[in-house]
Design a protein that fits this description.
The complex is a heterodimer. Chain A is an alpha/beta fold. Chain A has a domain at 4-255: Amidase signature (AS) domain (Amidase signature (AS) enzymes). Chain A has 15 helices and eleven strands. In chain A, β7, α8 and β8 (292-296) form a beta-alpha-beta unit. In chain A, α5 (154-161) runs parallel beside α6 and α9 packs across α12 (370-391). In chain A, 62% of the residues are buried. By secondary structure, chain B is mainly alpha-helical. Chain B has a domain at 5-43: Histone, subunit A (Orthogonal Bundle), CATH 1.10.20. Chain B has a two-stranded antiparallel ribbon with strand order 1-2. The chains are: A alpha/beta, B mainly alpha. Chains A and B meet through α9, α10, α11, α12 and α13 of A and α1, α2, α3 and α4 of B.
Chain lengths: 487, 104
Amino acid sequence: MGDLHNLSVKALSALLQSKEVSAVEVATRFLARMGGNPHRAFLDIDSEATLTQARASDAKLANGTAGPLEGVPIAHKDVFVTRDFATTAGSKILSGYRSPFDATVVDRLRNAGMVTLGKLNCDEFAMGSSNENSAYGAVSNPWDTTRIPGGSSGGSAAAVAARLSPAATGTDTGGSIRQPASFCGITGIKPTYGRASRYGMIAYASSLDQAGPMARSAEDCALLLSAMCGPDLDRDSTSLDVPIENFSAKLGDSLKGLRIGIPKEFFSEGLAADVRKAIDAALKTLEAQGAKLVPITLPRTELAIPVYYIIAPAEASSNLSRFDGVKFGHRTKDYTDLVSMYKKSRAEGFGEEVKRRIMTGAYVLSHGYYDAYYLQAQKIRRMIADDFQHAFDDCDVIAGPVAPTVAWKLGNNASDPLADYLADIFTLPASLAGLPCMSVPVGMGESNMPVGMQLIGNYFQEAKLLNVAHQFQLNTDFHNAKLEGAQ
Amino acid sequence: MSLTNTDIERIANLARLELAPDEQARMLSKINDFFGIVEQIRTIDTTGVVPTAHPIDAMPGALMELRLRPDLASETNGTVQRDLNQRSAPAVERGLFLVPKVIE
């Protein structure tokens, strides 16, 4: 089995179920590849913890109690709390933190049989689009190590692209699954808000945060998403009571007659020519498969940037108040009273971007500014969600770019956070509306860097998105593109 | 609209963040850059639009009602659970979190 690490989740699962390989063998192979922590993708690796899980999986495979994904490895973004591995959310304030429990998503994937390879690097508290906001150093893009992998789930995308793990979890608040998936040439999906439990997912912006899988293909994402999602009514008050779906069973539909909405605002002058070319070619492929392209409009696309960057920081400023140096996390050594302990602990523990968002959030929520900014943003959020509903009168799914450009150079936007914010323009609208959306690799742009196409569906239409992506991948090979040196 | 140093000091206090002088200057300039793109939202006519605090409000058929679970302790393993909960705390004594004196 020379190429275990090049196999899909589906193929690995078949080999494990038929006992052609053991979970320990598979885990050992990936642990070996993770040695030296390529691309700085991981924040915690504990081979003994991984092998213990793998041995338990082998026992289940032997005695006939195996789960559907028994023994298949996965790595988790470091915003999911885990009992067996440290959890930091990419922040110094949580350095060395050990959770007393596993996040529901981690739990569900373990129950499906998956073995945890470790914890993946990300922007601090998932705030960022480049992974450069991690307190533990930026992840590099496996396609060009002088470039960013995207963010905030940058470690997840890099690990899958470099074949350090066949699959990873990510979280998406304003594009944090789709954009790194696009930049690293892999497939990732954010389900409808409320499908995946947020229990044990360290909160950034609670009305936006949603977990999802990142893997090489739509077929693998379907397997993973089916295992991840499901009601968690006692532990997450925003978990929706919608039945578990088998997304893998719904990948066989023809695209004949499918109406794909093309929002003109996603193809405006801000879109780089190389990205546009790859997306146009992908749309032609979908047309050739029988889909019909329908022009639509999402007139408030540009407003999504200020609206998101008001609402998300507002929620963050509240969520991150729990990091006060009392019950967990960093406490300063130098304080005079309780308030100075709070202020100094937080000042020492948080990075600059996190502080900026906390400050912005506190400001827009403060007396005299709440109506003008926060409430106004919430109203425009409603208008953006309504725009999508109008668009879905004329189409079944929406397609466009994930990001205006391919991955940029590390350090490029270091002194200009606003440039990162503006680059989120195409991913923010679906996040604000809570719609399911994904990124599918569709080719290469400038400097041979991957380009991702975004698909957006109406609420609970994940199966439709995954089917479109799978049908596309049956006819193309971009999702199998291999990196040099990743053999 | 432009924020001033006084605004930054006021918000930093609300947010319980101590900012060094150079950090405060950077914060002021970056936040003002950011509000440069925010101002456009004030010109949008939102008369009669119901604010959306949560995406579930926008889903057709409004799927969610506020749910409360029964008020019961879900972790029943007593001090074992308490020790697990407190193992990452900065200062603990006999199961209590230690903080600086609050009331003189």
